[in-house]
Amino acid sequence: MSLSPVTTDPVFTSDKANLAPGATESICRVSPEPPCKLDLTESVTVDAIELSPMTPIDKQDYDSESPSVLSARYRTQRTREKIQFVTLCWFVYLEGWNDGSNGPLLPRIQKVYGVGYAVVSLIFICACVGFITGAVSNVILAEKLGFGKVMVLGSLCQVLAYCIESTGPPFPVFVFAYFINGIGIALQNANSVGYVACLKENAEAKMGVFMAVYGAGALSSPLVATQFSHLPHWNLHFLTSLGIAITNTIALIIVFRLKPQAECLSEIGIVHSDNNASEHSHLRQIFANKDVHLLAAFTLLYVGVEVTLGGWIVTYIIDVRGGGPSSGYVSSGFFGGLMVGRVALLWLNEKIGERLALFIYAVLAIIFEFIVWFLPSLIGDAIIVCVVGVLLGPLYPIMVNHAGRILPRRILTGSIGWIAGVGQAGSAMIPFMVGAIAQTAGMKVLQPVLIGILGIMTGLWALVCYGSSSRRPN
Question: What percentage of the chain reaches a pLDDT higher than 70?
């Protein structure tokens, strides 16, 4: 750039003493500042440069927007967030529906296929393998395909699984459908829980409501499954599951439009900086984090207890307490308590602190399980099982909230996905273990096994709380 040289202009009185011999006195005009005097140590000609203050583009954009425009944008973002949240709640309702169906159908499956406790528990093993496969695959697929595509892929897996189960196929094909279903649930569970954990306003309340919807699904499905279990075509129950799965797929496609998570979050005003400075992949970072493994072990036991109690309690009531065909409603009572506890106890969690609250709920659940074990009362056991559901309900949301506080943001979604996937594996592993033990010792072993697992789970929570930092690393 070439500018015209400027000769000295007597705008102000120069201080000749400050000039070296042979130097040229010049001025620099800067707008809007007043002219300035330059002390030069050698003979030099200074070009006049007109400088104007500049405003950053982003600041110009915000300044140009009126408060009404900003308010309208905020309302649009909140509306879109509610739509996204409801869509994810519909999936978790289907997840609860799926888990709540097992209890009333297990006795009928045993009768139709002529299998015992151990063999019928293979449905849990296949589901467990599917959950683990989906959890590991999710960490890779989430980076390759993105949030929206992985959610739809998981939903399509569920649609395929329910299509197979609704035909009443041979037992090996029937249990294989549980494997496919496990993959689908793990993929969606990992991404949906991670997505809700990224929400900002009223995060704890939203997570509690989100988990409560799971309880609503698990509450309503036994009411339907119990009726189908008495019909000749019991397998048609899976057509109801298929209908929910199809609507879930449609809703995911319409709302999230196969977009990555970052883009979906930006639509509701949430922007996270992705820290890619580490040379390790997200998968290696997740597996190298001690807190992730402690939380995953805790979740495996918790979800295992939850699904075992909700699934095998019907068989326990029938075989041990002499219950009748309507015993399937006890499972509804348990999951109904689960749903109520996740919402009704939110105020108590906030009042006494979530860490302490979880200890109290776990100890009380153990005490009530002892009562179910030693109280030979059909009605009494049914009521206490509902109370245990209320106490166990808040545990999972508390765990997710704690994970959001202590895990690095860059691996939070993948970590919660892995934790949730391992938890879903527990929902298959522990019910199978109970079924295998009951094959030789009888279903009366249900309560002592649950008490032991609850005790181990409480000890793990102590390690989670006191073996990890209280805040998320930068």
Answer: 82
